[in-house]
Amino acid sequence: MTISADFVKLRSLGLCSFLLVAAPLASAGCIIVDEDDRHEGHAQHDDWDDGEDENDNDPPPPTDEPLLVAIDTGAVLNSEPGEGVGIFVEYAAGGTWRLWTTCDTNTSKVVCSFDLYASVDTSSELFDIVGTDLEKTDATRLVDEGIAYLHAETGSDVDAMTFTTTEGAIVRLEAYLDGAQEPRYVYWFGDGILHEGAPSNPLDFEPTSP
Fold it and tell me: What are the two backbone dihedrals, phi and then psi, of residue 183, each rounded to the nearest 5 degrees?
């Protein structure tokens, strides 16, 4: 049975920035989180703990050493275009990956410039790169053997890239927003949990099943 859950982010302006729906999950519910993750005129906000804040609830700063995380096979994310910044990662059984992006253009009035690199190790294959919902300013290509690239100028829309790998292959994602590393905007489902922000950039994803 498929059970879905709604996750609503409430931004500092009192707007629901975007709605995420994923399946399958262990339980259903609605979680409201207050965050100030606006993308204003390409300015980047540093929300990571710099060691000077005594609040132990703050997340640690991301590391440049790639960490390995689980991604739930078959979990699907949905987001309202233009209402929030996001880099979304999905994996379907058989080796199909989908990377897609949204921006907060409806509020910020600017677009998000994403550069995403997805790669596999030499023991796996990556092929069939396809861009969907792309405009003239967007592009997908194979930049090297085993490395897929998406450049997306995302506004009040969704830009996406799908590709196929060897079943169950570990995929490494390196994500940039406006030329800067921005792992905090990476979203995926792993072990039945919505993960909001990557602990490293690059980040390695291992499917829970091939």
Answer: -70, -20
